[in-house]
Amino acid sequence: MIRKLLAIAIAAPLIAYAQKPPQQVEVNVQKTSLSRDQEMQIGKQFAAQVEREMEVVRNPEVESWLNQIGQRLAKTPEANAYPYYFKLVNDDSINAFALPGGPMYVHTGLLKAADSEGEVAGVLAHEMSHVALRHGAAQIGKQQTYGTLFGLIGLAAGALTTDKNGNCGLVCQITQVGTGLGANSVLMKFSRGYERDADLNGARMMASAGYDPIQLPKFFEKLESSQGTTSEPRGLALWMSSHPGTGSRIQYVSDDIRFYPQRSYIAGTGNFSRIKQLMASIPPPKVQPGKLIQPKDNAQARSNIPAGYKDYPANGFSIAYPSAWQAGQPQPGSSLYIVPQGGALSNDNSGVELLAGAMIDYYVPQAGAASVKLAASTQEFIAGLAKGDPNLKAERSVAVTVGGKQALRTRITTKTSYTQEPAQVVYLFTVTRDAGLWYLVLGIQPSQLSAFDPIVKQMVASVQFPN
Ligand SMILES: [Zn+2]
């Protein structure tokens, strides 16, 4: 052995003078201030947000197909042992994204644009590589605002309102930056360096899993070259902005492939054409609650709202509220809170408590949104609330009209953690909508009722639905 080492030592300088042997490009896992646990928790929270905003396609055949490919890739060393899972979302624009820690979402539009299973595997491998190389986590770690962006981390107990000087507090900050998980999100827009690393790591992952690695760059370049042609898939501009051109993907992946051990690439489920067929039969997406409670893009405030009130024109409804109150989602994907200062409290990581003011959301009945029925779903909803709140007492529901629709008003009494006056009166208004049971909760301490009742009246009277 010693003799052999010596021989190498003597030979080495000679090689150095000869042509330098080509070296495989190194791809590194990024350093980040987030722990692996934090990373996974952020991913989980964002996954919850995604699933309130986008319709997950429940189709066992497609789900199992996607997971078969994904899990095959997930077992490779290049996947860095994250607990990946894969879901299909009903969106016809071309896209796919993976969240820190492993949740991954594939748009129906991607499967429609792909021409082979290998191309789909290539996109999975690329997106999974962003997770494996901790690109999202590294970008979040750099964000100064991540404490507020992801209410989850570093959010101490405290009221979620504007501060005494009227500055934008947590609620409105999150409304501004935290909602929407578009291509501009820190989790989806990566530098060209990260893109190239994801390509290389993804190609190696594909090869390890038995897929032809060249399919990855080929699909990306195919999409790029379809720009402006009749075959350009929907949403390509957004795709290109979240996957910026990196020069020749095919070139640098081909250079990388020369270092891979010889093997034949035979992985494949053989079911791709069946999946394409199924894609064609998926009905158009239903707008999800998470989207419906968000403010409508470029919406105009209505002119007929009461003096001293502001308008909140959301995708699924409009409601006016007292100008001094704040509207917003305390956490990405959470319910909409419209509260006066001190009206909501974040008691721990698990949720936000409404002390005074309004909360709006949709309740999806256990049997699914399509099964929603006013009386039955309202009862189911209240029963669910009562399970988590032993102090809750609901009176008999009364038929009313909200936004021109049949509605129920239910008066509830309960207790909050507000120490000075724990008793709370809650008015619950419910209306059936396509996405489920729309509800408006208005809560107050009994001593404030006389001032609160006129506000309840004004707010309820201001509700409008788009259809
Ligand atoms: Zn990428």
How does this model look, in words?
A hairpin with a 7-residue loop joins strand 7 (326-328) and strand 8 (336-339). This protein has helices spanning 2-17, 36-53, 60-74, 108-113, 117-132, 135-142, 146-149, 170-177, 192-209, 215-225, 236-242, 249-257, 272-280, 289-292, 374-387, 449-462; strands at residues 85-89, 96-98, 103-107, 158-159, 309-313, 318-322, 326-328, 336-339, 344-348, 351-354, 357-363, 393-394, 398-402, 405-415, 423-433, 436-444. It starts with a helix and ends in a 5-residue tail after the last helix. The chain is an alpha+beta fold and 467 residues long. The chain has 16 helices and 16 strands. It folds into 2 domains: 36-143 and 186-280, no CATH class; 297-462, Mog1/PsbP, alpha/beta/alpha sandwich (Protein Transport Mog1p, Chain A). Strands 7, 8, 11, 12, 13, 14, 15 and 16 form an 8-stranded antiparallel beta sheet that branches. The model is unreliable at 4-15 and 144-184 (pLDDT under 50). The longest helix has 18 residues, at 36-53. Residues 126, 130, 190, 195, 198, 243 line the site of zinc ion (ZN). Zinc ion is lined by residues 126, 130, 190, 195, 198, 243.
